[in-house]
Amino acid sequence: MKCAAVMMQYDYGEKSRGFSYEYYNIFMPLMDVAGEYNIMLFDFYDEYKRSGKSVMNKKLLEFVEKAKPDFTIFCLFENELDGSTLNEIRKHTKTIAYFFDDPWRQKYVRHWINYFDYFSTPDYYMHQNYLFEKIENVIYLPFGFNKNIYKKIELDKDIDVSFVGAYNPYRKWIIDLLIKNGINVKVYGRFWDGNSNWITQEEMVNIFNRSKINLNLSNAVFNDSRYLLSAIKSPKAIKQLILNKKTREQVKGRHYEINGCGGFQLSYFVSGLNMVYEIEKEIAVFDNVSNLPELIRFFLKNEILRNQIAQNGYKRSLEEHTAQGYMRKLIDIVSGSNRGDAKE
User: Fold this and answer.
1) Where in the chain is the domain with CATH 3.40.50.2000?
2) What is the DSSP string of 271-340?
């Protein structure tokens, strides 16, 4: 089966930032499943920046007409594509819109789903909501992880607690709270302490494997009254609160990536996480930042329990949550041979 991927090849279209999330976790797994000679990439955003919207849309249609893929998966960004172009493309290929953030981009998603044969959601409850509304061309497709990138490596656990992710005021407030409580936490990511560099995929995988505890901290919803009071004193925090468009949490790619490396994960709780991992047996969670220092100390002392949870999460990840498995599920659905599982 021939397929095409219309997506950014580089992170937010910037080559200096490396390959995009969708390239690592959708395009590359598609190559693993469909075969590298059966998948083609059209970097719509690079063409959009270079040639403008009209020319890019024209070239995209020509690309599909010439390639004649059985299906084409689109990872949209904003409004770079024309609805008329997408309608014309549907005459030549089955189309799928792969959405990352539909729980909080509903106005955007509700507009664009009209132009595709299928669309996906990574969120269990959004999937149920679409079905309740009799929208039946939706595919439940959790993020998963690329099993060829995120791997378990036998490294010394020389990091007590780590967090990998970009700086924002809320995350800094949590990290500062942990430090005040005597927690030795190492932070990796852009804009922490003036650092503008991104860590590499290899570095991130090593950190997940080296850490006794991998923290997963939200950057979406801020409902801790102590943070809101402290934010009044910080121009950065006030700006974040004003500009933040996210209205709810969701299960993210990081949940799968840490577990896919066999790392022990201590995450914020989000609805739907319990549908992909068994809480306290395959992943540990905190529901209140106030309890986080105590939880960290508990798990640092209990190595046997910590390792068991990590191993359970790792096993579940390999069995059910590889990106390769989810891409196989996608192909099965659009080809009419839906086997209904995500194993690969």
Assistant:
1) 3-144+323-335, 159-320
2) TTHHHHS-BTTTBEEES-GGGHHHHHHHHHH-HHHHHHHHHHHHHHHHHH-BHHHHHHHHHHHHHT----
Nearest to 73 by CA among 111, 23, 130: 23
Tokens of 191: 């804009």
CATH class of segment(s) 3-144+323-335: alpha beta
Q: Report the pLDDT value the prediction gives residue 339, as an integer from 0 to 100.
A: 47
CB neighbour list of residue 104: distance below 8 Å, 6 or more residues apart: 220, 245, 246, 247, 248, 250
Domain 159-320, CATH among 3.40.50.2000, 3.30.43.10, 2.40.280.10, 3.40.190.10: 3.40.50.2000
The pLDDT, as a whole number, for residue 249 is 80
The answer for residues whose C-beta is within 8 angstroms of residue 256's C-beta and 6 or more apart is 142, 143, 144, 145, 150, 276, 317, 321
Rg, Å, the chain Cα set: 21
Q: Which of 158, 162, 203 is nearest to 183 (CA)?
A: 162
- State the average pLDDT for the chain: 91
Confidence label for 340 from pLDDT (cuts 50, 70 and 90): very low
Question: What pLDDT score was predicted for residue 221?
Answer: 54
**DSSP string for 174-239:** HHHHHHHTT--EEEESTTGGG--PPPPHHHHHHHHHHEEEEEE--SS----HHHHHHHTT-HHHHH
Task: Give the pLDDT confidence score for residue 77 in this predicted structure.
Answer: 96
Q: Pick from 230-244, 293-307, 327-341 the range whose average pLDDT is largest.
A: 293-307
Three-state secondary-structure class, residue 106? helix
The C-alpha atoms of residue 182 and residue 222 are separated, in whole angstroms, by 24
Q: What pTM was computed for the model?
A: 0.90
